[in-house]
Write a structure and sequence with these properties.
About 5% of the residues have low confidence. It contains 20 helices and 21 strands. The protein is elongated. The protein is an alpha+beta fold. The protein binds adenosine-5'-diphosphate. Adenosine-5'-diphosphate (ADP) binds next to helix 2, helix 3 and helix 4.
């Protein structure tokens, strides 16, 4: 019979599998058992929603058998099976996941999502098998078909025989080769240990060589008592079910009784999935009703700001026949969601308290989501989330919460101070930071583009104002000093008027006592800060905003005298100097200079003149 070719992606994947790191080889069994369990889930679910189908849960099982002489390991299930087309589509191409198809087919019936595992799945069997034969009979059909392949060069499909609905997978186990040992896959005790290690939580019995007893406990992990579960069990379960390759940062396993009873097993991942910050990412938890999967990603169970959480919720109080839309409005679900949110929040706070370096790692990956949660929906959730923020502090460049900042504020300190910039190092040398350091006031360094929006949404932490030190209004002067300064500004107001003529995009020019050693700084007045201007103008839209900028000049710096002198003697030179100072202030703030040629020429003139002096 003519061989059919695999699709290109499948070939690539298969190649990867066949030549994959040998130490991974045992995961193939978990993958095949998982598929078998899914196939049974599908049939069971169908029977629950269609009265014409009568199947009994107790009849479902997954059988393994070993034929040592012929080196064949067989995995059989009595699940939903596959038609000829399905065999071809599901096993002939990898890009089109059968699970995904099941989902869309049923979406219009407002039914369920079933596990759309993304991963290598079935093909992993090529790591250990030189030939794979899949015989399958779809539920409701009396014809069986055989799909067979020895790897890259293609597969065949022909008619076959199978007594009942379901799927039988026969693997011809590879011969041992130097360091690569395959023989152990033909030993009962080894297979038994693999099932216990990777598939213990599968809810259908897994039996070996016709034995009456099942190898697995069948109680799903989330329904088992916590003290019977090892950390490794949780980690394996998580990685297998949610396709992650790193252990989770935290596991939250709870069972609740009361108004609504439910078990939940939640995971806070260590790393963000590759699509986490794209619109393709779907949040949600797997929802079970008494061990039966009713929805793969129930988004109502998680608020957006905790969308990174993975896990399983199982409640006997949910009806199986409930439609997707009704489920979304279900009160029970609302109660569970609330409970879960509290648990996650507590866990994150505990991590901050007791496992700071892990939290910092977590925050690097998911902090943006929490920040987004703060300013999204006009800040409605800000109070819930404010204690989850961490920022780098001028104190020691380590990260702290707002609570920690507040607790060690100086007695005379009136506000929580922050400043935005590109990197901590760049912020640390900003002229405006100096006076805060002098007073031993801590400043939080905000390097994420969202930070400015987060801080202006928060406005306060408890009763303490949160202030951007980049704002012209943020000032540490005493009343007296302020009065003194106002006087000086008043005296020089005509000079400032001339200076402003040279820099028309600046709204105010004035003296300041914010600066110690530096000559100038740029701040903003009004709602829009310089950082917001940078962020919004960097977006690929036509929206363009300008902060109302204030050029502040250090009254105690010798440049102040120079300017006053020029005002008396040479107004044109005053304008040139102003332009240079303004360009300097923009550079320090990380803003572009629109007229670099003019500025560099001006600087050159000044330098040349000095030489002549
Ligand atoms: P995944 O399970 O991630 O979708 P696989 O490559 O493991 O990917 O399987 C591809 C598809 O083949 C499955 O989605 C399923 O539709 C089908 N399939 C695999 N094994 C079985 C089985 N034992 N019974 C029925 N269908 C199966």
């Amino acid at each position: 019979m003519a061989k059919k070719q695999f699709k290109t992606e499948s070939k690539k994947l298969m190649d990867l599998m066949i030549n994959s790191i040998y130490t991974n080889k045992e995961i193939f069994l978990r993958e095949l058992i998982s598929n078998a369990s899914d196939a049974i889930d599908k049939l069971y679910y169908k029977s629950l929603t269609d009265d014409s189908i009568s199947v009994k849960k107790k009849d479902f099982e997954i059988n393994l058998s070993i034929d040592k002489d012929n080196r064949i390991l067989t995995i059989t299930d009595n699940g939903i099976g596959m038609t000829k087309d399905e065999l071809e589509n599901n096993l002939g191409t990898i890009a089109k996941s059968g699970s995904l198809e099941f989902k869309t087919e049923n979406e219009h019936k407002k039914n369920i999502d079933i596990i759309g595992q993304f991963g290598v799945g079935f093909y992993s069997a090529f790591m250990v098998a030189s030939n794979i034969k899949v015989t399958s009979r779809a539920f409701g059909s009396d014809e069986a078909y055989v799909w067979e392949s020895s790897g890259i060069d293609g597969y065949t499909i022909e008619k076959g025989e199978l007594d009942t609905n379901g799927t039988k997978i026969e693997l011809t186990i590879k011969e041992d080769k130097e360091e690569e040992i395959y023989d152990e896959l033909l030993h009962d005790h080894f297979i038994e240990s693999l099932v216990k290690k990777y598939s213990n939580y599968i809810t259908y019995p897994i039996k070996l060589n016709g034995s009456k007893d099942s190898l697995n406990d069948m109680v799903p992990l989330w329904k088992r008592s916590k003290n019977s579960i090892k950390e490794e069990d949780y980690n394996t379960f998580y990685k297998d079910k949610f396709n992650d390759y790193t252990d989770p940062a935290r596991v939250i396993h709870t069972s609740a009784e009361g108004l609504v009873s439910f078990n939940s097993l939640l995971f806070i991942p260590t790393n963000a999935p590759f699509d986490f910050y794209t619109k393709n990412y779907e949040k949600g938890l797997q929802l079970y009703s008494n061990g039966v999967l009713i929805m793969d990603k129930c988004d109502k169970l998680l608020p957006d700001y905790y969308s990174f959480v993975k896990g399983v919720v199982d409640s006997p109080d949910l009806s199986l026949n409930i439609s997707r839309e009704m489920l979304q409005q279900d009160k029970t679900l609302g109660i569970i969601a609330k409970n879960i949110e509290t648990k996650i929040h507590k866990e994150l706070l505990d991590m901050i308290e007791n496992d700071r370096s892990k939290y910092e790692e977590f925050f690097k990956n998911f902090g943006m989501q929490i920040k987004f949660g703060i300013y999204n929906e006009f800040g409605i959730n800000k109070d819930k989330l404010k204690d989850l923020l961490i920022f780098t502090s001028s104190k020691d460049m380590k990260q702290y919460t707002l609570k920690e900042y507040k607790e060690r504020m100086k007695e005379d300190q009136k506000a929580i101070y922050y400043v935005c910039g590109e990197t901590n190092e760049k912020i640390d040398v900003l002229p405006i930071v100096e006076q805060f350091k002098d007073k031993d006031y801590e400043v939080l360094y905000c390097t994420n583009y969202m930070d400015e929006f987060v801080m202006s949404t928060l406005q306060k932490y408890d009763d303490v104002d949160i202030k951007n030190i980049d704002k012209a209004s943020t000032d540490l002067s005493t009343e007296e000093e302020t009065k003194e300064l106002e006087k000086k500004n008043e005296e020089s107001k005509d000079m400032f008027k001339v200076m402003k003529e040279a820099i028309s995009d600046v709204s105010t020019v004035r003296f300041t006592n914010k600066l110690k050693n530096h000559p100038v700084c740029l701040s903003s007045e009004g709602e829009i800060t310089i950082e917001m201007e940078k962020v919004i103008n960097a977006m690929p839209t036509d929206n363009h905003i300008d902060a109302a900028k204030v050029l502040e000049i250090n009254e105690n710096h010798k440049i102040a005298d120079k300017l006053k002198h020029l005002y008396e003697t040479d107004k044109e030179a005053l304008k040139d100097y102003t332009k240079i100072l303004y360009a300097q202030a923009r550079l320090i703030e990380g803003l572009p200079i629109d007229n670099p040629t003019e500025i560099t020429n001006l600087i050159c003139n000044v330098i040349s003149d000095e030489k002549e002096d």
